[in-house]
Amino acid sequence: MKNILVIGSTGQIGSELTRRLREIYGNTHVVAGYIPGAEPKGELLEAGPAAVADVTDAQCLSDVVTKYEIDTIYNLAALLSVVAESRPRLAWKIGIDGLWNVLEVAREHNCAVFTPSSIGSFGADTPHQMTPQDTIQRPRTIYGISKVTTELLSDYYHLKYGVDTRSVRFPGIISYLTLPGGGTTDYAVDIYYSAVRGEKFICPIGQGTLMDMMYMPDALKAAIQIMEADGNRLVHHNGFNVASMSFAPETIFEAIKRHKPDFEMEYQVDPLRQSIAESWPDKMDDTCARTEWDWKPDFDLEAMTVDMLAHLEQKIK
């Protein structure tokens, strides 16, 4: 990777990924792509180039790729799970019609493309424990349907046109820097904020509901490592399972309570979020990622909890 375009650079993952890529490849080599109304601010804007990069406008994408001589595109444009259910047509327009434009531009300009998939690409009929890399995927949400289509369309462009498409299936992402944006796993971010503020946490996910989660530093590591991996080793290209930790609400509550003894939580289950959560894996098997490109996370629940609380104490005080 020499010149990189991050589409969705102001989003939950994009804002942190853009910064990390600039640290590695140099500020001038990473373009922060955004849509009008979601312009980058502060360091994200000042540290390196920024440009409008709207996935629904193929000519706009082509112009940016040409101007900055882009060879790698991180396409993070998408609506998250809960938001997507309320706006399904827009979710498809951004996630799939937009991806088509990105892949066409990549084919024409010989760019590699990373477009993340998700645990949402699985469904109720998928094995929930140690979910295999290759298994049944029959999601019943527009978010999940779009993610399965993302994997298949990306594979199609790789097999038919030779576009270097790669991706991982992200679990829920937990970060102290960026606020949640409408995902089913957002409770696992909100709970830390409540703990640091001394508030009782109202949990929208039911007791005993296991979901895969990952701390943001590991998510960034996975996104960069897969794009740097030796292509000759890859059996798969799109939709690698990547895992770090799996827990239920009561487990993360107890992890925080060890550091915040007075912390309290009660359940007020959100039926929509709960139904989505129950259709997702409890824990994914990421053997293929570990074997094909040496994936290994750095954080478990305890290490993440210590780091999250320390940073949020500084952020909120």
Structural account:
Helix content is 44%, strand content 16%. Helix 3 (58-68) packs across helix 5 (88-109) and helix 7 packs across helix 12 (301-316). The protein has 2 domains: 4-171 and 215-241, Rossmann fold (3-Layer(aba) Sandwich); 172-213 and 244-283 and 298-316. With 317 residues, the protein is of the alpha/beta class. The strands form 5 sheets. It has a 6-stranded parallel beta sheet with strand order 3-2-1-4-5-8, sandwiched between helices. It has a 3-stranded parallel beta sheet with strand order 6-9-13. The mean pLDDT is 94. It has helices at 14-25, 42-46, 58-68, 81-86, 88-109, 142-161, 187-197, 216-228, 249-257, 271-278, 287-293, 301-316; strands at 4-7, 30-34, 50-52, 72-75, 112-114, 117-118, 129-131, 165-166, 168-170, 172-174, 201-203, 211-215, 240-241, 245-247, 265-267, 283-284. The N and C termini lie far apart (39 Å).
* Count of runs of 4 or more consecutive helical residues: 12
Silhouette? globular
Taken as a percent bin, the fraction of beta residues is 15-25%
The tally of strands reads 16
Quickly give the CATH architecture of the largest domain.
3-Layer(aba) Sandwich
Helical proportion?
A: 40-55%
Characteristics:
12 helices; three-stranded parallel β-sheet; single chain; globular; alpha/beta; six-stranded parallel β-sheet; 44% helix
